Amino acid sequence: MDMETRHGPFYFELNTGAKMPSVGLGTWKAPPGVVGEAVIAAVKAGYRHIDCAYAYDNEKEVGLALKELFSTGVVKRSEMFITSKLWCSDHAPEDVSKALTKTLEDLQLDYIDLYLIHWPLRTKPGMRGWDPEIMAPLCLPETWSAMEGLYASGQARAIGVSNFSTKKLQDLLNFAKVTPAVNQVECHPVWQQPGLHNLCKSTGVFLLAYSPLGSPGSWIKGEILKEPILIEIAEKLNKSPAQVALRWGIQSGHSVLPKSVNEYRIKENFSLFDWSLPPELFSKFSGIHQQRLLRGEFAIHETRSPYKSLEELWDGEI
Predict the structure, then answer these.
(1) Type and span of the H or E element at 40
(2) Beta strand pairing status for 114-117 and 159-162?
């Protein structure tokens, strides 16, 4: 493809100087048995960013796929950007390093490009799920200090957070010695997060969008691809609504993490760089009704959770 007809951005620079590809493959809800094939198909299609997490229960298989890609010369480790996340049960400072060690073992990597605190919520060590019985008091300053240790050691080339509201991110910035590189949050045309975007831009924290298509195949059941404005723009440009939603994301200045295990859609979701949204169509996105899809009811409890309401979890951003 002729470079003159290429439409970026192809990557964004983090506050560490690292370059994060503007499109990555999400692996949440990608079951073992298919996630490895999805990773291989994605990398062969041009993806260079894979978004993982301990809690997705598929890092071992992702690791096998990466090993195959590296050993067969499809791609070098240095060309890939791999993200993973610290689960809520590992927030105790002494557990943070052990959690990353486990993730690196499963992924068969020496270092992670980006390591995130998955949620501003803590559960008891070794526990899974969100049962109120296993919720524990937050210790975010201590957890973040341990994350800073991983950054200093080089095991994590960048550190950040996920699911932090504007206020929670501001609170973290007040005590962090190392500014988080990233806040990974729900972001798509139906939940555009302008306030959080503004704080991120002004503080050098990069906004990374999960569920950029609204997670239609998950229990979130987001229907954003049926949004009439999206369909209208897609028809005008002869693109799919998914492509339009993703192109909106990268033109808005954030990386997007579409998840698919279908090879056709994996390729379609990456076909974003030989066209762009013209200003008159881009401006139509401001007319879309806004609604958070992943609301986080599971994190709410009257007595055991630090958050007694959704208002408290998201600090009014709902």
Answers:
(1) helix 35-45
(2) parallel
pLDDT in tens, 74-101: 999 999 999 999 999 999 999 999 999 9
- Cα separation, 168 vs 149, whole angstroms: 21
> What residues does 182 pair with on adjacent strands?
206
Beta bridge partners of 84: 115
Asked if 201 contacts 176 with a C-beta cutoff of 8 angstroms, the reply is no
CA proximity to 285, closest of 315, 251, 240? 251
Helix (H, G, I), strand (E, B), or coil: what is residue 107?
helix
Q: Which of 11, 47, 54, 56 is catalytic?
A: 56
Tokens 């791609």 sit at which residue? 75
Is 56 one of the annotated active-site residues of the chain? yes
DSSP state, residue 117? E
pLDDT in tens, 180-234: 999 999 999 999 999 999 999 999 999 999 999 986 555 445 678 999 999 999 9
pLDDT band for position 6 (cuts 50, 70, 90): confident
Place of tokens 């692996």: 27
